[in-house]
Design a protein that fits this description.
This protein has 794 residues and is mainly beta. Among the domains are: 92 residues, Cadherins (Immunoglobulin-like, Sandwich); 102 residues, Immunoglobulin-like; 104 residues, Cadherins (Immunoglobulin-like), CATH 2.60.40; 98 residues, Cadherins (Immunoglobulin-like, Sandwich), CATH 2.60.40.60; 112 residues, Immunoglobulin-like (Sandwich), CATH 2.60.40. It is built from six helices and 40 strands.
Length: 794
């Protein structure tokens, strides 16, 4: 019994340890390439005394993409070790696409794909499988996860995502110069077969360019490609998968390649000689023509600089480059004259501004052409011989004196006569005239330098054959000074001399001024007048530099004897004719200290020698002011007291009577009202005479012939009489009014002696005889009165 139990235990250990293989056949598993045999074994539950080994080798299935069969595509099979084939096990499927993409047979565990799959959309699906007891609905084993991968097929061609491409390369580049790198992308699985292995090739664009089949780098294949020959290239690039093998899919793109410019071409003139025609009247700085050199390059490589080669006529012209058209613009630097020169020839050189030294071997990058300019004759206005005429004339020159002439010529072929005239806009006052034929300028009025020292006007010259052609020139006339004013002391001097002055001391420096326009180097001379030269207190020392000094001649001066000295100084100029003037200088005697410093020149200086100080003088003046104030106050009080007494005596009177105590003058009273409107306004009012007093007896003149009535005076008197008769404010008495107003229009003013400043005895009427025959009667009448005047007779 014991032996049998030990043998049973040994057998159990051997079988459970896996040292022996069970007798039942194991489920056969195949590779994924045989989908009908794809079996996924699920682990079964172990009994208490039995150990079960897991039965699957991998946990993934494969399914072909883009399956187009009529039946669902078989994927694989699920199988559990606990499934004895009795129909008690149910298989379930969950996860990505369960039920929609993939289905499972619950009894057999077969998995099918019910629709076509695209690996590029979803490369794999993750699902979970489980075996469930049909009766108890309980899982027979834990849920297992597995993957279904979509197996790639070559269904996507390579694509150039960045195409079409644009690239550039400099012209004249060597072979193999880098242009551009292109890249194609294949959506197929790069880890499975050659579906995603791309090879590049050129379908169009050879033999100019080449491409690396692996990297897609495009390079130049020909040397010295010239942009001026062909600038644009279109290259067609192909990318093919499957390593370029037959049956692979391909994609294409276009690469537009531009050859960029380099300065490999010099400028060239299309012709060797350029002919230009220019009118002689062309203004300076104007463009007279254009020439152009052709450069096939582009941009800054085609920028051209033009220069005039030194030679015949080159200094009259200039050339600049038009930046927009790269043409050479010829401009005029100096005026042209057909009569002087009719044609000019010079050379122009064109060269590039930006030179590429790699192409120097091709030759000089410049070209030369000849320019011939023909000057066209244009009818021009007359030309003055000078651009400005300057003339001089002395002031007070007689009218009509010729002071100068202008000359203008017609330089055209078949010259015309010229006519001159003054531009009235510049000489509106007509101080000068010009001879229209000769061009001589003469004075038209007397000139005064002190009024106008310079005249500036214009003269116009026009052709007689064509007056519209005219030219203008400025005339500058300087008026020269004639010595007509004497020199005078320049400023008023306040000259002082000290009482303790010594002989020969200069107390004042004086200078002179002349209103004439003194020429350079004119000298003034100073001297003492002849009447003051006898025993003079002062003398004049001429310094010969247009200044002089006042020199003392005495030893000391006394202010108490003479406070002021008047010194006549004669000043002469050096012009012709010589003009001189006598100027009186006032010299005041002042008190000075020992150093010559003036202390005082006022009234105080008179009292200082007496010994009175300044304080004493102020005290004396203050006392005088106080005394005057007391006297004025006393007089005012006396008058006020007298007035108060008079008013007191009149308080008892009921009515106040005002006494004027004025006696009227009767009919002879002419002072009652103002008759100044009828009098000569030039007569001084202070010398009015009373007409109510009998005048002195006068010698009666001889009988005068009757004089015609002056109607203006009569009408004026009648008008005044009517106004006085109608005036209610007129005096209530008769008045005698004497009207002695001659009138403002008279040359001799008033001839009446009434209200004159002097009496008839003091008046001299001899000048009436000089007034002409109109005043002969008046001269005889007053001459007779003088003869009977006893004072004049003496």
């Amino acid at each position: 019994m014991l032996t049998r139990n030990c043998l049973s235990l040994l057998l159990w250990v051997l079988f459970d340890g896996g040292l022996l293989t069970p007798l039942q056949p194991q489920p056969q598993q195949t590779l994924a390439t045989e989908p009908t045999e794809n079996v996924l074994h699920l682990p079964g539950r172990r009994s208490h005394f039995q150990r079960v080994k897991r039965g699957w080798v991998w946990n993934q299935f494969f399914v072909l993409e883009e399956y187009m069969g009529s039946e669902p595509q078989y994927v694989g099979k699920l199988h559990s070790d606990l499934d004895k084939g009795e129909g008690t096990v149910k298989y379930t499927l969950s996860g990505d696409g369960a039920g929609t993409v993939f289905t499972i047979d619950e009894t057999t565990g077969d998995i099918h794909a019910i629709r076509s799959l695209d690996r590029e959309e979803k490369p794999f699906y993750t699902l979970r499988a489980q075996a469930v007891d049909i009766e108890t609905r309980k899982p027979l084993e834990p849920e297992s996860e597995f993957i279904i991968k979509v197996q790639d097929i070559n269904d996507n061609e390579p694509k150039f995502l960045d195409g079409p491409y644009v690239a550039s390369v400099p012209e004249m580049s060597p072979v193999g110069a880098y242009v551009l790198q292109v890249k194609a992308t294949d959506a197929d699985d790069p880890t499975y077969g050659n579906s995603a292995r791309v090879v590049y090739s050129i379908l169009q664009g050879q033999p100019y360019f080449s491409i690396d089949p692996k990297t897609g780098v495009i390079r130049t294949a020909l040397p010295n490609m010239d942009r001026e020959v062909k600038e644009q290239y279109q290259v067609l690039i192909q990318a093919k998968d499957m390593g370029g093998q037959l049956g692979g899919l391909a994609g294409t793109t276009i690469v537009n390649i531009t050859l960029t410019d380099v300065n490999d071409n010099p400028p060239r003139f299309p012709k060797s000689i350029f002919h230009l025609k220019v009118p002689e009247s062309s203004p300076i700085g104007s463009a007279i023509g254009r020439i152009r050199a052709v450069d096939p390059d582009f941009g800054q490589n085609a920028e051209i600089e033009y220069n005039i080669v030194p030679g015949d006529g080159g200094n009259l012209f200039d050339i600049v480059t038009d930046e927009d058209t790269q043409e050479g613009v010829i401009k005029l630097k100096k005026p042209l004259d057909f009569e002087t020169k009719k044609a000019y020839t010079f050379k122009v050189e064109a060269s590039n501004l930006h030179i590429d030294h790699r192409f120097h071997s091709a030759g000089p990058f410049k070209d030369t052409a000849t320019v011939k300019i023909s000057v066209l004759d244009i009818e021009e206005p007359p030309v003055f011989s000078k651009p400005l005429y300057t003339m001089e004339v002395y002031e007070d020159t007689p009218v009509g004196t010729i002071i100068g002439a202008v000359t203008a010529q017609d330089l055209d072929v078949g010259s015309s006569a010229v006519r001159y005239f003054i531009d009235w806009k510049s000489d509106g006052d007509s101080y000068f005239t010009i001879d229209g034929t000769e061009g001589t300028i003469a004075t038209n009025e007397l000139l005064d330098r002190e009024s106008t020292a310079q005249y500036n006007f214009s003269i116009i010259a026009s052709k007689v054959s064509n007056p519209l052609l005219s030219s203008k020139v400025n005339i500058l006339i300087n008026v020269l000074d004639v010595n007509e004013f004497p020199p005078e002391i320049s400023v008023p001097y306040e000259t002082a001399v000290c009482e303790n002055a010594k002989p020969g001391q200069i107390i004042q420096i004086v200078s002179a001024a002349d209103r004439d326009l003194s020429p350079a180097g004119q000298q003034f001379s100073f001297r003492l007048s002849p009447e003051a030269a006898v025993k003079p207190n002062f003398t004049v020392r001429d310094f010969r530099n247009n200044t002089a000094g006042i020199e003392t001649r005495r030893n000391g001066y006394s202010r108490r004897q003479q406070e002021l000295y008047f010194l006549p100084v004669v000043i002469e100029d050096s012009s012709y004719p010589v003009q001189s003037s006598t100027n009186t200088m006032t010299i005041r005697v002042c008190r000075c200290d020992s150093d010559g410093t003036i202390l005082s020149c006022n009234v105080e200086a008179i009292f200082l020698p007496v010994g009175l100080s300044t304080g004493a003088l102020i005290a004396i003046l203050l006392c005088i002011v106080i005394l005057l104030a007391i006297v004025v106050l006393y007089v005012a009080l006396r008058r006020q007291k007298k007035k108060d007494t008079l008013m007191t005596s009149k308080e008892d009177i009921r009515d106040n009577v005002i006494h004027y105590d004025d006696e009227g003058g009767g009919e002879e009273d002419t002072q009652a009202f103002d008759i100044g409107a009828l009098r000569n306004p030039k007569v001084i009012e202070e010398n009015k005479m009373r007409r109510d007093i009998k005048p002195d007896s006068l010698c009666l003149p001889r009988q005068r012939p009757p004089v015609e009535d002056n109607t203006d005076v009569r009408d004026f008197i009648n008008q005044r009489l009517q106004e006085n008769d109608a005036d209610p404010t007129a005096p209530p008495y008769d008045s005698l009014a004497t009207y002695a107003y001659e009138g403002n229009g008279s040359v001799a003013d008033s001839l009446s002696s009434i209200d004159s400043l002097t009496t008839e005895a003091d008046q001299d009427y001899d000048y009436l005889a000089d007034w002409g025959p109109r005043f002969k009667v008046l001269a005889d009448m007053f001459g007779e009165e003088e003869s009977c005047n006893p004072d004049k007779a003496t």
